[in-house]
Specification:
This protein is α+β, with helices and mostly antiparallel strands. It contains 10 helices and 12 strands.
Length: about 325
């Protein structure tokens, strides 16, 4: 009897240890996988240093190359208001951002061209394959200026915001300076761009979908950073620019009620500002008030018919879409 008990006890211990070993093997494999992935991502990620008109640092952010021609993606707000900018690569070298080639204000994305030797470019492929909830992701960026910081987490939720499109809620932390970091899946492809945190709540971090990257279309003429900033300042009165910025800060998080008053005031202050009417329409769309959304979008199109393509580059609700396109 004692022998049987000893044998059963020994077998139980063996099975428990075997189970533990399997769990440890999975954890070890996961760590190795992430480590290998990070080594591939880091050389493509840069720290973005933006300067004001006096060549003083005005902002810090992150960015990443998306091809071998020198095109780089970061957040619109990282470069907004800057007159020059550099990127600092993984090997510590600096290269200047020469041209702004495409932008999307609502999704907070901008595409620029960096003057860098082709042999020095490392890039990350972009995919439009959407992640599922609980999928693991890795971020590399420069939070608070701490270059090449790695964080990992999961997709906590997938949300749809009017005009902006898909937004991913992440458990991976995002801090000032992380803006523009690539959100990479376990296959080494970019599925989003780290963009913002919710001011209310803890660990509420968000990235815009990589579809926004592929939707960025090159304009007829690229502009230097100083030309781009100057044009924005000429076209947009300072107060209206501030109102729109505050409005988009709320609307991109889905807080449309808070955003609405900013855009209403912006349209009152500057009735010919297309961005203000555009933001107002997106708020009404988010609040499920299609008639008001249609009127706001129509007003934007009356002022600037060229915005037609920009407004419909994202798939919106069928009712609003149909009503505006048949204006």
């Amino acid at each position: 009897m004692r022998i049987k008990i000893i044998m059963l006890f020994t077998m139980s211990v063996f099975l428990v240890m075997a189970g533990c070993n399997r769990r440890y093997d999975k954890v070890e494999l996961s760590i190795v996988q992430i480590s290998h992935l990070v080594k591939k991502i880091q050389p493509a990620v840069v720290t973005v240093v933006a300067y004001d008109v006096n060549r003083k640092i005005s902002n810090l952010g992150s960015g990443f190359f998306v091809d071998n021609k020198g095109y780089l993606i970061t957040n619109y707000h990282v470069l907004k208001g800057s007159y020059a900018a550099d990127v600092k690569t993984y090997d510590g070298k600096k290269y200047s951002i020469e041209l702004v080639v495409a932008e999307n204000i609502p999704s907070d994305l901008i595409k620029v061209w960096v003057k860098i030797p082709e042999s020095s470019i490392h890039w990350i492929p972009v995919t439009v394959t959407e992640p599922s909830i609980a999928d693991r992701v890795v971020l590399v960026g420069s939070p608070l200026g701490l270059e090449q910081t790695v964080s990992e987490g999961i997709i906590s939720a997938v949300r749809e915001l009017p005009v902006v499109g898909k937004v991913f809620q992440l458990s991976a932390p995002i801090s000032p300076g992380s803006s523009g970091s690539p959100v990479v899946n376990m296959r080494g492809k970019v599925i989003g761009v780290a963009s913002f945190q919710a001011a209310k709540g803890q660990n509420l971090n968000f990235a815009v979908s990589s579809k926004g990257i592929l939707d960025l279309k090159h304009g007829k003429r690229s502009k230097t950073l100083s030309e781009w900033t100057y044009d924005i300042k000429i076209k947009t009165p300072k107060l209206v620019e501030k109102l729109c910025k505050e409005g988009f800060n709320f609307s991109i998080r889905g807080e449309f009620k808070d955003a609405l008053n900013y855009f209403i005031e912006a349209t009152e202050k500057s009735p010919k500002d297309t961005v203000a009417w555009y933001g107002l329409g997106s708020c009404y769309d988010g609040l499920e008030q299609p008639e008001q959304a249609i009127e706001a979008f129509k007003q934007a199109l009356r002022i600037n018919p060229v915005m037609h393509r920009r407004i419909f580059i994202w798939e919106r609700s069928t009712t609003t879409w149909a009503a505006i396109t048949l204006r």
